[in-house]
């Protein structure tokens, strides 16, 4: 089979982890009889430097035409000015909106070898295998009105947290479908004791939950969820929440495995290409040193195989290869090892194709 993948390496360590993942996918394709065609485009700070915008119309069109999109990371100190009219993160928001990907899936599985890298006690990490489903195209990041104004009393800034019931319903539907293939439990996270948008969220969660009687639904306030993620993380199966809450909670969940470098994500919609990326940032402090951890990007490619290409056998084989390499201790410095980015990728390929 032939599959087209748009590559957006981005900034910092993005190109290093994306190119390492391309090598892994090429080896997987050769082993299983698939052809992956890659086309590379600029997005983020590098696109600002070249074109004056974080995402060009041409790049967005190319991504829409591909079967899937693989992203590295965007941003860095060079463009780190919140007051700048053009910022790398604007490209990411525009890409998500343009592709219509409204659900961000972030699995968090604690492997025995990774548990020692977490600051949490080992007994708290036993059995941790959860997925955070984050709504991606609504909420504070997109609500209107939005902006800053001068007033006679000083400056005023406004962000609007807005959701329509259909936006909430489609993300809850995805969470419940996902839970049916796992442990049949959904935790819906909101702030319904304060926010009207959360009260709407909770209402829709109940409505959707009634359609899935085999799935247990629990409601949890976001502050409680933040505490439970570090005190009883194994109690979660599928955790679903709105955009900003999900942004914060998924980064918090990275502490369970000791680093953001191994966590993947998939952003999906109702049709069109999915967007796959590790959850880590551009890590400019280690860019160009060849020591960036490629595991999060490789596992994101496994999600691509599963959700966009429907290649479950290949996705599972790739995940198993990554787990085996991690178990051997062949790790990058962020996990206490001394392996390079390319060495980890080569080990994954060796296990995958053996």
What can be said about this structure in brief?
The chain has 354 residues and is of the alpha/beta class. The protein has 13 helices and twelve strands.
Give an overview of the whole structure.
With 354 residues, the chain is of the alpha/beta class. The protein has 2 domains: 1-102 and 268-354, Isopropylmalate Dehydrogenase (3-Layer(aba) Sandwich); 118-256, 3-Layer(aba) Sandwich (Isopropylmalate Dehydrogenase), CATH 3.40.718. 42% of the residues lie in helices and 22% in strands. The chain has helices spanning 14-32, 45-51, 57-65, 88-99, 112-115, 122-125, 165-180, 196-209, 222-231, 243-253, 295-307, 312-327, 341-352; strands at residues 2-10, 35-40, 68-73, 103-109, 129-135, 143-151, 154-160, 185-190, 216-221, 238-241, 264-268, 274-278. The strands form 2 sheets. The protein has a 10-stranded mixed beta sheet, with helices on both faces. The radius of gyration is 20 Å and the shape is globular. It starts with a strand and ends with a helix.
CATH class of the largest domain: Alpha Beta
Mean pLDDT: 95
> Which percent band covers the strand fraction?
15-25%
CATH-defined fold name of the largest domain: Isopropylmalate Dehydrogenase
Attribute tags:
Isopropylmalate Dehydrogenase, 10-stranded mixed sheet, 22% strand, globular, 13 helices, 354 residues, 2 domains, two-stranded antiparallel sheet, single chain, alpha/beta
SSE map:
Blueprint: E1 2-10, H1 14-32, E2 35-40, H2 45-51, H3 57-65, E3 68-73, H4 88-99, E4 103-109, H5 112-115, H6 122-125, E5 129-135, E6 143-151, E7 154-160, H7 165-180, E8 185-190, H8 196-209, E9 216-221, H9 222-231, E10 238-241, H10 243-253, E11 264-268, E12 274-278, H11 295-307, H12 312-327, H13 341-352
Parallel strand pairs: 1-2, 1-3, 3-12, 5-10, 8-9, 8-10
Antiparallel strand pairs: 4-5, 4-11, 6-7, 11-12
């Amino acid at each position: 089979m032939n599959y087209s993948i748009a590559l957006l390496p981005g900034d910092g360590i993005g190109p290093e982890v994306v190119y390492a993942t391309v090598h892994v996918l090429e080896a997987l394709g050769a082993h299983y009889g698939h052809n992956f065609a890659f086309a590379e485009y600029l997005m983020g700070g590098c696109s600002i430097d070249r074109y004056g915008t974080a995402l060009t119309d041409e790049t967005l069109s190319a991504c829409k035409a591909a079967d899937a999109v693989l992203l590295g990371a965007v941003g860095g100190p060079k463009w780190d000015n919140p007051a700048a009219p053009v910022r790398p993160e604007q490209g990411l928001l525009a890409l998500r909106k343009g592709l219509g990907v409204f659900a961000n899936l972030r699995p968090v599985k604690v492997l025995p070898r990774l548990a020692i890298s977490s600051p949490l006690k080992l007994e708290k990490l036993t059995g941790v295998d959860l997925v955070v489903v984050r709504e991606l195209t609504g909420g504070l990041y997109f609500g209107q009105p939005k902006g800053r104004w001068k007033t006679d009393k000083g400056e005023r800034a406004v962000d609007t947290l807005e959701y329509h019931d259909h936006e909430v319903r489609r993300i809850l539907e995805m969470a419940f479908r996902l839970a049916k293939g796992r442990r049949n439990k959904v935790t819906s996270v909101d702030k319904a004791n304060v926010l009207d948008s959360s009260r709407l969220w909770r209402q829709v969660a109940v409505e959707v939950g009634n359609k899935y009687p085999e799935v247990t639904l629990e409601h949890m306030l976001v502050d409680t969820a933040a505490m439970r993620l570090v005190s009883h993380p194994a109690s979660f199966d599928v955790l679903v929440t709105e955009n900003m809450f999900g942004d914060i909670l998924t980064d918090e969940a990275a502490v369970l495995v000791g680093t953001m470098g191994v966590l993947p994500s998939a952003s999906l919609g109702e049709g069109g290409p999915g967007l796959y990326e590790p959850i880590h940032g551009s890590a400019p402090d280690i860019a160009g040193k060849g020591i960036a951890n490629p595991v999060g990007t490789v596992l994101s490619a496994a999600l691509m195989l599963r959700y966009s290409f429907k290649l479950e056998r290949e996705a599972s084989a790739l995940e198993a290869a990554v787990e085996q390499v991690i178990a051997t201790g062949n790790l990058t410095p962020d996990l206490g090892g001394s392996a390079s980015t390319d060495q980890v990728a080569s080990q994954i390929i060796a296990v995958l194709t053996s």
